[in-house]
Amino acid sequence: MPKAALSWSSGKDSAFALYRVLQSGKYDIVTLLTTVTTSYDRVSIHGVREELLAMQAENTGLPVMKVEIPPKSSNADYERAMAEAVQKLNHMGVEYIIFGDIFLEDVKRYREDRMAGTGITPVFPNWGEDTGKMARDIVNAGIGARIVCLDPKKLDRRFGGAEFDLEFLGSLPPDVDPCGERGEFHTFVYRAPFFAKSLGVKTGEIVERDGFLFTDLYIP
Q1: Is the dihedral of CA 171, 173, 174, 176 positive or negative?
Q2: Which of 94, 123, 152 delimits the end of a domain?
Q3: pTM here?
Q4: What CATH number has the domain bearing residue 38?
Q5: Which domain holds residue 112?
Q6: Which of 29, 120, 134, 199 would disulfide-bridge 129, Cβ 3.0–4.6 Å?
Q7: Taking Cα atoms as reference points, which of 165, 154, 155, 158 lies closest to residue 190?
Q8: DSSP state of 112
Q9: pLDDT, position 40
Q10: Alpha carbon of residue 39 to chain centroid
Q11: How far apart are CA 208 and CA 83, in angstroms?
């Protein structure tokens, strides 16, 4: 099987992409690839502690390669860090990188453009899915996730730290995508069929930063 890396945000879409790829048996996943913000020691955008990311990786049995970017980073900062990561993946013999994107054409095109000429081909196992169906499929697959970041202009603050389950999906306003694909919310996966064990996360502080509401999760 060809070697592949999986772009891992710590959330449900990347977890579902990994679930699908493992079921397909088409790729040998050799590492997770995660963007983290230095000085915060947290997963970028999701705001998840790095120690929780490490526990996720440990439970998948896969290493995690960190793409480190500074706070308030620019696109150029990200592209530099990603280029360094791609060089490492090349040395590992990685031929494919798996992304969890669903329908944002500009994001897909950006990833394809960045990978062009690197020798690594991007793969999008979730692409084109109906997000309502996919959200239910994620829940029904046994992937457990909590809401760790939300846009309070789109989603009520009471959903901070909420379980991503059928009840949550049934409570969403009609203008919010069921998978949060437009950035309405982000999740942290604490349980998955490919995890050795569930992570017993608890809800900590809830803070508003840069226009988003972040719910801190921790393991006591």
Answers
A1: negative
A2: 123
A3: 0.93
A4: 3.40.50.620
A5: 3-123
A6: 134
A7: 165
A8: H
A9: 66
A10: 20
A11: 32
